[in-house]
Amino acid sequence: MMRAAMTRAKVDATLISFLGNVANIGLLILVIIAALGRLGVSTTSVTALIGGAGLAVALSLKDQLSNFAAGALIILFRPFRVGDFIRVNGFEGYVREIKMVQTSLRTTTNEEVVLPNSVVMGNSIVNRSTLPLCRAEVIVGVDYDCDLKVAKEAVLKAAVEHPLCVQNEERQAAAYITALGDNAIEITLWAWTNESDRWTLQCDLNEQVVENLRKVNINIPFPQRDIHIINS
């Protein structure tokens, strides 16, 4: 009944499972104590015995209890949900499942990563699904002797003309001169899109930026060294 009521109230599925398990364990303990009481066994002694056994189990399962507590915090505070794309402890992927002791991610290479909840809550969590848009970034180098205005326009055009690039009052594609390197002037392109389209847009922009620069005869230089030989 409790599960059905919470489902109708659209309570998070993980929270329903957690509360259901806690309720089942609590009811089981109460039933055991009541049954032993009817058999004439002192309920005070039984309660003390269960408490002592619980303490011993808690000490032996300290790490698992830490994961359990962290799982409760994840469910209560919801830093992420199933389906969100997150980065934590050096791993990133879509949240596949949230259990009481572990959280599993599905990476972009279709690998499953299982993380203890204590590790998840003990590290910084980057949730890319919280906000509606994310940024794709392309960095390219151009020759020092090129026309920078033409180069920036060619780079920016790749984003502006792409159908997955979102352009609105708050977010606009932009190209900046971000560094003066040893061999090239660095141009950085920013483009905004939905999280589900970020990887596609990123790959497309990499290709289109190169093509656009070639169309306006701007070279993308590579590292080189000049060697001067001096005869003594």
TrEMBL record:
Domain Mechanosensitive ion channel MscS C-terminal: 137-220
Annotated signal sequence range: none
The entry's keywords: Cell inner membrane, Cell membrane, Ion channel, Ion transport, Membrane, Transmembrane, Transmembrane helix, Transport
Localization annotation: Cell inner membrane; Cell membrane
Function comment: Mechanosensitive channel that participates in the regulation of osmotic pressure changes within the cell, opening in response to stretch forces in the membrane lipid bilayer, without the need for other proteins. Contributes to normal resistance to hypoosmotic shock. Forms an ion channel of 1.0 nanosiemens conductance with a slight preference for anions.
The species this protein was found in: Neisseria lactamica (strain 020-06)
Highest rank taxon of the organism: Bacteria
Transmembrane annotation, as ranges: 12-36, 42-61
Subunit structure: Homoheptamer.
GO cellular component: plasma membrane
Keyword Metal-binding: no
Family: Belongs to the MscS (TC 1.A.23) family.
Protein name, as recorded: Small-conductance mechanosensitive channel
Example GO molecular function: mechanosensitive monoatomic ion channel activity
Membrane protein topology class: Multi-pass membrane protein
